[in-house]
Amino acid sequence: MSAQIETRAGYLPQKPETLAAYLSGVERVRNLLGGAPGQWNIAEVGDGNLNLVFIVKGPLGGVAVKQALPYVRLVGESWPLPLSRAHYEHMALSEQARLTGGLVPGILHYDEVQALIVMELLEPHIIMRRGMIAGTVYPKFAGDISTFMARTLFFTSDLALTAEKKKAMIGAFSGNTALCKITEDLIFTDPYRVAELNRWTSPQLDAYAARWREDGDLKVAVSRLKLKFLSSAEAMLHGDLHTGSVMLTPEDTRIIDPEFAFMGPMGFDVGAVVANFLLNYFSQDGHEKQAGDRDAYKDWVLATLEQIWTSFREKFLALWRDNPTGDAYPASLFQGAQGEARLEAERQAFMERLWTDTVGFAAAKMIRRILGLAHNIDLEWIEDKDRRASCEARALTLARDMMVNTASYSSIRAITDAARRVREEIKSY
Amino acid sequence: MSAQIETRAGYLPQKPETLAAYLSGVERVRNLLGGAPGQWNIAEVGDGNLNLVFIVKGPLGGVAVKQALPYVRLVGESWPLPLSRAHYEHMALSEQARLTGGLVPGILHYDEVQALIVMELLEPHIIMRRGMIAGTVYPKFAGDISTFMARTLFFTSDLALTAEKKKAMIGAFSGNTALCKITEDLIFTDPYRVAELNRWTSPQLDAYAARWREDGDLKVAVSRLKLKFLSSAEAMLHGDLHTGSVMLTPEDTRIIDPEFAFMGPMGFDVGAVVANFLLNYFSQDGHEKQAGDRDAYKDWVLATLEQIWTSFREKFLALWRDNPTGDAYPASLFQGAQGEARLEAERQAFMERLWTDTVGFAAAKMIRRILGLAHNIDLEWIEDKDRRASCEARALTLARDMMVNTASYSSIRAITDAARRVREEIKSY
Asked: Of B120, B150, B166, which residue constitutes the final position of a domain?
């Protein structure tokens, strides 16, 4: 992180007092809100780590406004972050909208200079992580997230695109280095070394953190994953696909916040979803009010996780069978019944390789939420530190094994079985 | 290939009659040539497939001038090719010069609009392929090419670069799509399907070509390599590193023509060298004037091939140990004797993975030179078609096994042993 805060001619961070005047100049937004700017109710609600977020409501309707700051909101001006992330977010959001239709918020206005995006207001949606902490069942989620991942990953890969279009996308996203570096540092590096930003439930997990920093096999495994993250441009990733990047109701799912988007390894996105479901599963013991009152929800979490991978796999394969338009595995090489059979076997092998990547990336994302800078409220909201540490110790134990013994997790069922087993076996941190 | 020939304001293809006037306007070149432009001797000598090449000699010295045409020279205007390839060649050549010093020709002048590069005239260097056909020993070559590959691949990889610099290079080369597409089509696709541009020694190899088009395992294997070529941005590749891209004397080696450069998988460059040595080895039987008069040279070819990989491996590892400056495998994760030992084991494992890629890419490059569009004079110059086809059948047989049973070639020695064995076993095509 350099100490230089970016300046940009004309850029002004909005405040609730200035935003009405700005939005009144955008006809589409003005019409949607209705009435006069003075009637609009504006609140800054950003609870994320990086940006300003406003909710604006008028007589006719509402919008959400997201504006990048030239630094990390959570930390302040000591951690500069370029405004260009709004450019990459807008580019990814547009592509995701094209590919998945209603699974992302609608874009109403984009201002490159202001690094500002006006989007459809999602109501009464809440952040999924909060819903899962409360024990809310989302029956449509597995279907929606598997569609989102299958379509965004498949259609931006070499399986669907010509090399020319794919390379153009690689070029278009290659400047999003600052956001990628956050991932490179906070996920793949810091939790495995002494780093100022690391934190964990202390003193309970001090011995775990120390062991993680001395674990050569683990550090080699996470470094291989980092190398893959740095060098494998397989598809356009959301780049931060955890349950805090999902707003939903039981009936409607929207994926938000793709500012970490870049062309990277598919398993990174899929692994993020797997990791966050496992973290939530392990956190449920900490949210019980009476022993066993979360048992049914725990089962739903793991059953949904199984369904997410299974559906993703089926949908991705179906897209590949139906759209063999990319320069990889060209259809002309696999003609006739015999060719199709051989290609189908390779499609299955491709999904196995993607699964292996998914297991490794999921493990990395679990570990960073317990030993690194940014934690999940699934675990953070468990007030009793001993109880929280026990939940976290189970997640760490499973994650380490997933990363080092990846080959022994040959199916999603192998992971959910192991999660149940670890929960039984580890009584306390 | 679109049918559109690129036009560019101000661009004019040079002729021997126009070039003196152009060069007289470039002070550095004018001084180097000496005398008056009327005294300069200019000849067009391009025997490559794509570009114009002139040799210019004046009273004091000489230069080589390379200019891109907006189409493939070998084929004509029916196959357009963008002038931007000179831009990528110049960028790669500059980077290679910085990294390897004297192992590329010196750049004297670059004109982006004219897609024209003026370089040091290499005398009395010849194209290596011609020297190897003539049976010339190059004692310095293994040392030089291993240095070239180790330094260009290591220093442009995530092992040496920060992610930010690496992504900038990915962006800078992402536009070289037309040249990459030639590789994608001619190496990874056409030899395995009916394609107008394919040719082979016929009718002798007709059955081989037909078998190759029906071989499901082979087509899956080459498609996996193609996917890696499309999606693995490991390092800056030369992109066309065969023995026709080397000009040398027994004392001095220069690598030329990096217009196919892009950020791709390291094994593609290393495999190109391996493939061209194996093709030359198999061609030697066709160049014998008396039985056995090439035996010593064959031994030199295989011994040199072994030395190329062995030296490359050692040099790459040494660079990694001495320059742990990249964002991959960060030094901070592998401190102390134990950390260093664990990282060293991983470095060895990394080289094994790179070797596996090398074997596959080498096989692909052998097959394309026998069943695809562009052949090597090593084999083409064997006038007796039966004799040539027998040499080619041996190369094809080894290449198929290398691509499908890659794991059984665990060392360079395994390949040279197999090459000798195949030569003994296959008496005729």
From this structure: B120
Q: Which of B167, B216, B346 sits opposite A338 (nearest CB)?
A: B216
**What's the CATH code of the domain at B178?**
3.90.1200.10
ipTM of this complex prediction, to 2 decimal places:
0.96
Q: B143 pairs with which residues across the strands? A: none
Chain A CA closest to residue B222: A329
Please, what sign has the CA dihedral across residues B339, B341, B345, B348? positive
Q: What does B9-34 look like in DSSP terms, one character per residue?
A: TT-----HHHHHHHHHT-HHHHHHH-
Q: Which amino acid is at A316?
A: F
Q: How confident is the model at residue A1 (pLDDT cuts 50, 70, 90)?
A: very low
Q: Which residue of A has its CA nearest to B225?
A: A328
DSSP B114: T
Asked whether the beta carbons of residue A227 and residue B158 sit closer than 8 angstroms, the reply is: yes
Looking at CA atoms only, how far is residue A227 from chain B in angstroms?
6
Query: Which of the pair, B421 or A47, is modelled with greater confidence?
Result: B421
B47-81 residue pLDDT tens? 767 899 999 999 999 999 999 999 988 788 888 99
User: How open is the CA angle A381-A384-A388, to the nearest 5 degrees?
Assistant: 65
Give the nearest chain B residue to A266 (CA atoms). Answer: B231
CA distance B242 to chain A (A): 23
Q: What is the rounded CA–CA span in Å between residue B386 and residue B2?
A: 38
Residue A4 lies in a domain: no
B175–A167 CB contact, under 8 Å: yes
Same-domain pairing of B58 and B146? no
Structural domain range at position B276: 126-425
- CA distances, A420 to each of A1, A193, B301 (Å): 40, 29, 59
Structure tokens at B117: 């590069």
